[in-house]
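Private note to self, pasted from the team thread so I don't lose it. Backbone tokens:
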């Protein structure tokens, strides 16, 4: 691989890094991504030597993901209920009486 190709790969990774971090943050997968990068790219020997601690960190990142998504889901359901209650409380009552369908006469 030539030096130009290596520089293009590094430049592409640096350009894509903010987008990837923002996507992982919005999906609440940032802690899991950090664990994956740390144990697979930066410190694989440490992860192999400390399997228990690495597993605990993985479990903590998965637990953080589950808690974040459940809080987000609960907040969404609460907002939907508040909106529904507001609509029911403020909607006017429509009373049009008997509705005649097309072709029917009284």
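Design output:
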């Amino acid at each position: 691989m030539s030096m130009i190709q290596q520089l293009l790969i590094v430049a592409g990774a640096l350009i894509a890094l903010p987008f990837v971090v923002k996507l992982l943050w919005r999906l609440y997968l940032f802690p899991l991504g950090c664990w994956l990068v740390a144990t697979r790219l930066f410190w694989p020997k440490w992860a192999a030597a400390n399997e228990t601690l690495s597993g605990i960190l993985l479990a903590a990142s998965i637990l953080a993901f589950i808690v974040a998504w459940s809080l987000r889901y609960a907040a969404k359901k609460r907002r939907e209920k508040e909106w529904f209650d507001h609509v029911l409380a403020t909607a006017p009552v429509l009373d049009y009486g008997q509705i005649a369908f097309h072709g029917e006469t009284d």
